[in-house]
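Task card 7
Instruction: Convert sequence to structure tokens.
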Amino acid sequence: MAEMWNTQNIKGLETSADLQMPLPLTQEGIRNLPDESLTKEFVDDTVKSLYPGIQVPGNVNVTVIPIIPGITLFSYIRFFHANPSVGAVDIYINGRKVVSNLTYRNFTEYMKAFPGYYRVAIFRAGTTSDPICINYMNLIGYRIYTAAITQSNESNCIEMINDNHRFLQKNMAYVRFVQLSANAPQMDVYLDDSLILADLNYREVSRYLAVTPGDHNLKLRDYYSGAVLLEDPLVSLQGGKAYTIYVVGDMTDRVGLQVIIPLEGASYLTF
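Output:
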């Protein structure tokens, strides 16, 4: 396919051929994808015609789409494996394998993607049959997404967590909470023994809270009983940065709940 050919940048510009993500499909195109194409890339000519392309000179008949900072409409997306009940996974997007051997509690790097419709097929690592789940997503331009693989049914196993590029004051840190443990109770969130968020539920995404930079004590308490579900005594937050505290884990497992605290793309990604 044209978008798979490596241009090594045309005139210093990044192009669609350099992207790990495939081109998107139209809404009609995504609906008409055949079931057998989960691991076979399909390109909708209608979508390709929506983008102005550059014909590569020479003997290779390839048309690519330039990505010009500040002009070309695109998004960023990464994947987060938050399902403790399955092992490592491979991820196919519109039939193209974009992620290999992603293990529990780990993230991919952010990838650039054009806005549009995508089909996501998740398989156990090294396999291409009996997918764990198949989901669909519609990406909007100038957004930063984390697609979290969760413990849900076969048609609803991805939680899309989106962000906007924002102004971050250097004297404040910004933190939000996402609850991705399927069997955890409703919980209250305490920072330095102060209640900052009440009644956090499964697959709920809080708004960002501005806090002072430095080291903080984090406690998650059962909303009804007040019992401590998890405590992290040393959560370090830097000024001018945005973080998400992801709650993951299985309450019936000996490890129980855990928190994963990555730096969010809003802290450093540019368009």
